[in-house]
Amino acid sequence: DEEFVIVERVTGPETPVAAVATTDQLGALQRECRSVYVDPSLMQYAVRLVAATREPARCGLADLSRFITFGASPRATIHLIEGARALACLRGRRYLLPEDVTDLVPDVLRHRLVLSYEALAESVSADQLVRRVMEAVPAPDKPLETHVDLAANA
After folding, report:
1. How many domains does the chain have?
2. Is the pLDDT of residue 152 over 70?
3. CATH number for 117
4. Distance, CA of 91 to CA of 77 (rounded, Å)
5. Is residue 75 part of a domain?
6. In terms of Cα–Cα distance, which of 47, 45, 42, 34 is closest to 153?
7. Helical ranges in 65-125 per DSSP H
8. Helix/strand/coil (H, E, C) string of 95-107?
9. Which long-range contacts (CB under 8 A, 24 or more apart) does 85-94 make?
């Protein structure tokens, strides 16, 4: 059982671990991720997605309001952009693309929504709500690599 394994890991004896990076190396990776260029349109997109979980009616999703007791906070937007920057780095780019954001939206938002009793009673999941928000909030056009100003966020 998955839950048993989790409890056993947390409450069981310590497992020896070996360092794979120094704190200096981790700091350098964080700085590199922070230097990834984020076009303002992508930052606005992240803001609109997260705000739509708090006020679904503003983006034509009034029917979702009854399923969300509390939407995601502005910290979700921050973590969405930070995660997308890291993903762009992993993908070998120094600039963000819309798919870097959209690929992370479900993972960043699903646990930040507090669903209402109605949602639970009707078996409406956070993933379903996030999917509807993503369908209603269009991603910006993909910027061409030649138009990316890498110096702007350096």
Report:
1. 1
2. no
3. 1.10.8.80
4. 21
5. yes
6. 34
7. 74-90, 98-102, 105-109, 117-121
8. ECCHHHHHCCHHH
9. 85/33, 85/34, 85/36, 85/38, 86/33, 88/36, 89/29, 89/32, 89/33, 89/36, 93/36, 94/35, 94/36, 94/37, 94/150
Which pair of tokens denotes residue 127? 């993933």
Which band of pLDDT confidence, cut at 50, 70 and 90, is reported for residue 149?
A: low
The mean pLDDT of 115-144, rounded to a whole number, is 92
| Residue 1 banded pLDDT, cuts 50, 70, 90 | confident
pTM: 0.81
Cβ neighbours, 10 Å, residue 49:
25
Residue pair 130/59 in contact by the 8 Å Cβ criterion = no
- Evaluate whether residue 28 is within a structural domain: no
Instruction: Give tens-digit pLDDT for 4-41.
Output: 988 988 898 888 889 999 999 999 999 999 999 999 99
Give residue 105's domain range.
Answer: 35-136
